[in-house]
UniProtKB/TrEMBL annotation, chain A:
InterPro entries: Tscrpt_reg_HTH_GntR, WH-like_DNA-bd_sf, WH_DNA-bd_sf. Pfam families: GntR. The keyword Cell inner membrane does not apply. This is GntR family transcriptional regulator. It comes from the Bacteria. GO terms for molecular function: DNA binding; DNA-binding transcription factor activity.
Amino acid sequence: MWIPVHIDENRPEPLYHQVEVQLRSLILSGQLAEGTLLPSIREFAADLRCSAITVRRVYQDLENEGLLRTRQGTGTFVAGIDQSARDEFRLERVVEAFERAVETGLQLQCSREEMERIWRDAYARKRAEADGDKGGQR
Amino acid sequence: MNRGLYGLEQAESDKAVVALRGAAVRHDGFALGPLDLSVPAGMVTAIVGPNGSGKSTLLRLLLGLAPCEGAAEVLGRHLSPDSDAELKERIGFVTELPHAYESHLTADEKARFASLWYPSWSWERYERLMHGFEADRTQKLGKLSKGMRRKAELAVAMAHDPELLLLDEPSSGLDPSAWKALLDELTRYMDRGDRTLIFATHITEEVRRLADYVLFMHRGRCLGLYEKDRLFEGWRVLAVQRADGTAGREDAARLLKQAPGVQGAQESGPGICRIESDAPEETEAYCLSAGYRILSSQRMELEEIMACLVRKGGCGKMNPLVIEKVFKQYGDKTAVNGLSFEVAQGGNLRAARRERRGQDDDDAHGARAHSP
């Protein structure tokens, strides 16, 4: 199976870190369901054009975190993840996104009031767009 | 600069499938080694280096085809002139040039002969490989094109599922679809995790797609065995500029000398210096503190890294066997074109100008001769 992990060679983070972050996110967001059989270390390494050593390290790390499990002779599977871990991860990602936005705001000397107004407007606009889409589909 | 060593340590922590200690091959006009090298089992190691760097000789050494000095162990057995057939049964190989004496055979005839030799031979595997490579089985090997013959040779070499596969420029002459089939088959071959592949190549894309380790060869010497991903992570090329928008040749020379990790530097465009570093974070920090702006920071290609390694290791450091030869001819001090040579510890051959024997001379050539 092909896993949508994208390596950006010009980013300074080490390869294994890039692969690990993306694979963890695919699992915690539920995009890779429990029981999904992952590619073998060798196949995944060939897809990503990285070494088997890197993939082995990612699989080991995520296994230690309880996100993957390996069955001897069969392969590496996505483990069952409890809802609280998923929720935590979901919120963490939103918090990160907000933090980045606030950082940009502070760099550009936005006041708290300005940022709050931007947030309210953005929320209202996106909400309306989403509702509009649903309306259109009906 | 310690990254190479780090790679070696990593390699040695895995079980070694090849262990060389002071192994050397000498024949007319060419000297390989002495090499100290451990190649990890279960991994793919790509040997890269310019023509004549010793890649094929190294593979021949591992096959027991080139008589060598020193100690060489393959699959846990000492190589000796009368290396047993049992060891050879566990190895598969494709040499750089096909054997002329097989030219009158068809692929199937060669396979029939090989099947008698290898107890683990599988006709099913042979059929699958021949089919995958779209190889011709009816014409005599000598009548086939280079690429077509290659396909048949590869199928025969892999049909007994050897523990160790040695391939010398395996894709030479292959069309794109056969090349893809070969990469897929080699991935499948490695999949179980207990097989080892060592191959010599000039094709960067093969290294990127297949290799776990990269072994650099130059003039019969090994410039280092590196874990591939660490290698690509460890080297970067930076474009820097002074805050006032100028940067000239003097800047390049200064950065080469002073900034940590810099292995090459040149003025690459108006006001821009391009610097190659094997410690990019340190280099970046130094440049920023010295009043430069970093315009970009990118991965380096394998060829570029190799050029740096050659400059770094190859210029100051020469093959002791070659040095030995020079000294036999000229005595222990010699002068060529106004340069005098002297041998420093560890086989470092230093060229120093007679009149001004300073460290600056090496730097002036844009190559800093670090001893590893």
